[in-house]
Amino acid sequence: xxxxxxxxxxxxxxxxxxxxxxxxxxxxxxxxxxxxxxxxxxxxxxxxxxxxxxxxxxxxxxxxxxxxxxxxxxxxxxxxxxxxxxxxxxxxxxxxxxxxxxxxxxxxxxxxxxxxxxxxxxxxxxxxxxxxxxxxxxxxxxxxxxxxxxxxxxxxxxxxxxxxxxxxxxxxxxxxxxxxxxxxxxxxxxxxxxxxxxxxxxxxxxxxxxxxxxxxxxxxxxxxxxxxxxxxxxxxxxxxxxxxxxxxxxxxxxxxxxxxxxxxxxxxxxxxxxxxxxxxxxxxxxxxxxxxxxxxxxxxxxxxxxxxxxxxxxxxxxxxxxxxxxxxxxxxxxxxxxxxxxxxxxxxxxxxxxxxxxxxxxxxxxxxxxxxxxxxxxxxxxxxxxxxxxxxx
Length: 393
Fold this sequence. Notes:
Layout: H1 7-10, H2 21-34, H3 45-74, E1 78-82, H4 91-99, H5 102-112, H6 116-120, H7 131-146, E2 151-156, E3 161-168, E4 171-177, E5 187-199, E6 202-207, E7 213-218, E8 221-233, E9 240-250, H8 256-260, H9 264-267, H10 269-275, H11 288-316, H12 323-326, E10 327-332, H13 339-345, H14 353-358, E11 368-371
Helix pairs in contact: 2-3, 2-5, 3-4
């Protein structure tokens, strides 16, 4: 990108306004042709839905870039909202309303021979949450965007939801909720950043050349965390934030030695085991393997999130003592509680390990809060995290 270009110049081409019906229709038809690879005269409801969604995403991404630039220019403190689930529902209607395009798009589609409500029915519900906890998180994101709070949401990009419900002969039948079967037009799949998250292994202790006691985590199983961004527009205020959702990817895609020996299952065993972490929302915890997987999910998204938080923090400040002035972390219920331990164990070159403990979070601290909704977690009492003395360093 040419750094001499102004933001106005960059976004001059293709900017849409609700009162420019002709431009809206042309943008939709362009996506039918270029993004869907379809003759506009032969486009079906699904083609039109995805083209309308991509048109709205085009509008949002420009506003999102402007929002991010504003954060950096003002050196604003950021809020990081960690939730294991976001029950966002269907995004098309919400985006059309918040961006002020609902009536305009309805009229354009009517002129094209389509009904907006029928188009909206093409969208799969995003299976990123279940029940009140996830809905609370989604509402928080809408409110944060509308209030223009500098914030990000963090969670997991689940491939399958809790389940898809069918009623057969009066009985509930549960089927896999493969909401990403055909992908989603709302997501930006990122190749960077890419973060390693380690599991298992052992701790190796040693003294360095200066006589300092050091610990190193070795012989670990490494899973890579890849980012997917979904944009969240505020209500008619040109402010757009994003949820960053993590997907687990194997550090090794294929064990060629196993494959060449004919052990095709063994060749992909590590890949399947690694990527199971982000496969399903709320795996059953009846068996010990399910309980282990839930814990791995919680650690995986927290570990990736804090690496991302520190990446963003160090862009503007090398001094860890400024962390509470630049970062506020909010935990949605108990699932991300491992963030407390993760923050304390996070190490960055040049920072003393003891600094992590001195800034370890407690409920009510300037940089970390926890929301508790007892009705969503009836088997747990809403006790706050209590203050503990920091260890000697």
